[in-house]
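BUG: 3D viewer hangs when loading the predicted structure for this chain

Environment: internal workstation, default settings.
Expected: structure renders.
Actual: progress bar stalls at 90%.

Input used:
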Amino acid sequence: MFKHFLAALILISACHAGPARAQDAAAPFDGDLQRLAEILGTLHYLRGICGTNEGPKWRNEMQALIDAETPSGDRRARMIAGFNRGYNGFQQTYRTCTPAASVAIRRWTAEKLAALAPVDTVVQLARKMILAKNYPGVDVLTARSRLLDDHRVDAYHLDIADRARRAIAALRIAEETGNSAADSILLERARKLQAFFSQPFFVAEPFAKRPGSYVSRADAVRGCAEILNGRHDDLPVDAFYFTGSIEEIRGGRAPA
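Structure tokens produced before the viewer hung:
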């Protein structure tokens, strides 16, 4: 079973929408439309900062999507929220056209992302993560899950996912720009969080020379929350690498 692999998939920013009114009941394909809207928001931001000089092209594509579907009320609001989620999610990660932003643009073209819209979960394995030996190398900033996009988890889960994603985004920005003014405590917790996502698989036991670990989704979310809240500030980053639950990490030691 997966542990932090599953936790990595939950790190996706999401806005909690209210229940739909009867006259604005969701259509069966609304989830796909919201994903497409998020893709357009992502491209609108990334193509803008990397000097492609496309102006409002992707915003206009979004408007064309709304005009074609003619949603009203909550359905329209959800589509617009999807566009904003895509824009804001990558804005938190890339403030300038860094090499990583250029790679993201080449990787997440409109055609590729549109083909993935019906997929329940999108998991990107990043070369940089693998080189850092942070197995299985899931990039939590570009992963997507229908469970979060469609708000099928509770508000606490959504909040922790958003906080964790923002912390990892801040760490990426600091690493790429050398920003010495960044919050050192936040960055240290983000490093622990990133290490916490490393996964000792059962299938990899002959190669890793250590037992695999199983941790429930609830325990994985709780571990993320405790790291973000500073409950384990007394432990070094290495303590979180390639381990199982928080209890295993602490090895029976009480938090400071």
